[in-house]
């Protein structure tokens, strides 16, 4: 049996990383960060469905699908939230399964707040369950 993977578990609908699915096909899954994780509106993850550790491990088809999904996610966030900016990054080694973060910087975020850490801003917008459902519904329409 292979090593445990929290993202593979998430794709099976289990574990603490499970968040609402915005888009999924045979190659990629796009989800919103679950509530309770310091969630701010518009923090998405683009993940390969197949267990691939790094970007260098992606097939050509997976790489193209990730690129399409990241671009679509960024545009959807811009349309739904009108943020100051939409950022994307591939970073960290806490989960050895390729995943790319795509996230919105809320309007009015002070310049002192790091670009990659709006959760450190105490006055940041927050989501409740109803708000998350509405946002995900809008984001899904942008992927159709």
**Any idea what the shape is?**
globular
Q: Kindly report the average pLDDT value.
A: 94
The CATH class is: Alpha Beta
Helical residue percent band: 25-40%
Separation, N- and C-terminal Cα atoms? 37 Å
Q: Which range does the strand content fall in?
A: 15-25%
Give the CATH H-level superfamily. Answer: HIT-like
Q: Give the CATH topology.
A: HIT family, subunit A
- Spatial sequence of strands, sheet with the most strands: 1-2-3-5-4
Total number of distinct structural domains: 1
Order of helices and strands: HEEEHEEH
Can you tell me the residue ranges where pLDDT is under 50 for at least 5 consecutive residues?
none
Present the secondary structure layout:
Blueprint lengths: L5 H6 L9 E4 L3 E5 L10 E6 L11 H22 L3 E5 L9 E7 L23 H15 L1
Antiparallel strand pairs: 1-2, 2-3, 3-5, 4-5
Helix pairs in contact: 2-3
